[in-house]
Each structure stands twice: as C-alpha cells, then as structure tokens.
Amino acid sequence: MLQLDSPLRRLPKDIDPKHAFYLDGLRHAAEIASLAWERLLETLTEMADAMRREEASDAHHAAAFLDAWCIVDAVDRFRTLWKKAPFGPTEVGDCTFWEVTEQLRKVRNVGDHPTELVDHILSADTGALGTLHWLTLDDVDPAAGSICLLKPGFLPSVQIDFGDLSRLNIDTTRRTSAVRLQAGKNTADLSETMAHLKARVEHLENALAGQFAGTAETERAPSDLLACATFRAPQTL
What we know:
alpha+beta
C-alpha cells in the first residue's frame, strides 16, 4: 500500500517528535492492514477454488480469521490515530474516515468483548469467531464465480444465508472481493474499508511529499532499525 519511497519512511530529522509518533503509527497500521489484506484475499481465493473442485478442507480457516481480525484491529488503530493526529490531516471524499469505519468499530467491539456479548452473538448466529462472506470470480470465466460463507465452530443447525447479493460491490480487477466480516449483528465490509484506507494513505503521502520537497536526503532521519549481535557460547571442558 505504501510507496517504496514513501515520505512516511523517511521523515525529516527536525520534525516534531509527536508528529513523528503519529505518522509512524499511521504507517505501521497501514502496512499491517495491507499485509493481512493481501494474505486474506489469497486465502479466500484458495478456499473458493478448493470448494469448486470439491476439495474443501478446514486447513485455511484459522488463517482467514487471523488476517480478517488483524485488519479490523489495524484499521481501528489507524482510525484513532487519523482522528487525533495533532497535524489534522485533511479528509478525502464526503465522509470522514471515522464515519466510514463506524461499522468496523462495532465489529471490533463484539470481537473484543465476546463474553459480555454472548447473548447478542448467539441471537445473530454468527459463531464465536464471526462469519466471513466473500465472492471469488472464476479463474477461467470472469463472468462466473462463487459466493462463499465461512462460519467455523459449533453448528446446532445448518442455515446458509448469503444476504442480498444485489448489493455486493464486486471488484473485477481482483478475483476475490466483497469481503465482509460479521460479528453478532454487525457487519464490516473489509473490501470497502481497505479502499478507504488506501485513499487516506495516498492522500497523506502526497501531502507529506509536498511538505518535505525541500528537505535534502541528508536531512532525513534514519528509519526502521534492525540490530543483531552475534555470539558464541564458551566451550566447557
């Protein structure tokens, strides 16, 4: 999601430390969400293809929910930092990021407080881990595809509800899109959320590039320290 030469990776040495803290936080949250999103799309695509071949297994279930909930947490962190950043980033579009991610926040609250909301979750029949919905286009015929649902865990009865398919926002540039995570009675559209996140990151990068345009490379602070000390245990006689 971030450009390789993103100004978020090379901040000026004289930047306000508090501003640097928020910019680093936004960058890290976006990178984590982006990594989890790409992995989730790959996993869901593999699962849809396996079901179509009648080779489905539960091997990828945990991985799918690991990345889905990772996206929720990372985007929620970005959401808070974006709103409270002291430099007040300007918004993109008609709605604020806080507004367009309100449903995601509700899903996160259910995920963070399952024991307090157990009756709410049971009444919605979404399971302890939630329910994932998505659409995967056929790899040969892009006019065909699969509508998928994954609800792991105890199933006292098997009821399949794909929801209102006419309202799905299908991205034909990717095989898998319209990814939604349901927890209790709340549903977050992860595909839409990631599009909003990408727009904010690009907007922030462009704004910073303009502000840092006169900053020489030697005036940029180093970033991303990785240190390693080698050792050898002493031999014993």
